[in-house]
Design a protein that fits this description.
By secondary structure, the chain is mainly β. Helices cover 7% and strands 40% of the residues. It folds into two domains: 38 residues, no CATH class; 73 residues, Immunoglobulin-like (Sandwich). It has a five-stranded antiparallel beta sheet, with no helix packed on it. It has a two-stranded antiparallel sheet with strand order 1-2. A hairpin with a 3-residue loop joins strand 3 and strand 4.
Length: 116
């Protein structure tokens, strides 16, 4: 699950922080723990672009839609036939159109969090 070496502390560290081992993302064991475990910390990536990324974070009964933008871009359309209520970033709730798509804002830089 991690990159090991012969130096101290015995594994490669993330950004030189000894208490943070560098994950080996090609490890099937790590991939399984990050995505399938009941306490998974992973998110479902819904969109990645040159200037924006969008992911769904589900934990317990809470579902959050996160849209991070570094600069203005073309609007992102996601097939999500549910409403998204603003939690952080802007005041507007989103409603799906007639085809079941949500259109996320194209402003930037911005960070939007919505509940589903």
């Amino acid at each position: 699950m991690f990159w090991f070496d012969d130096g101290e502390p015995g594994y490669e560290t993330w950004m030189g922080v000894p208490s943070m081992p560098k994950p080996n993302w090609s490890s099937p064991q790590l991939q399984q723990r990050m995505t399938d475990a009941p306490d998974s910390v992973a998110a479902r990536w819904l969109h990645t672009g040159a200037d924006s990324l969008t992911f769904l974070r589900e934990l317990g009964g809470e579902r959050l839609l996160i849209h991070a933008v570094r600069s203005g871009h073309e609007p992102v359309r996601l097939l999500l036939p549910v409403s998204a209520e603003a939690l952080y970033g802007d005041a507007g709730a989103l409603r799906p159109d007639g085809t079941g798509h949500l259109e996320l804002p194209s402003d930037g830089p911005a960070f939007h969090v919505r509940t589903l």
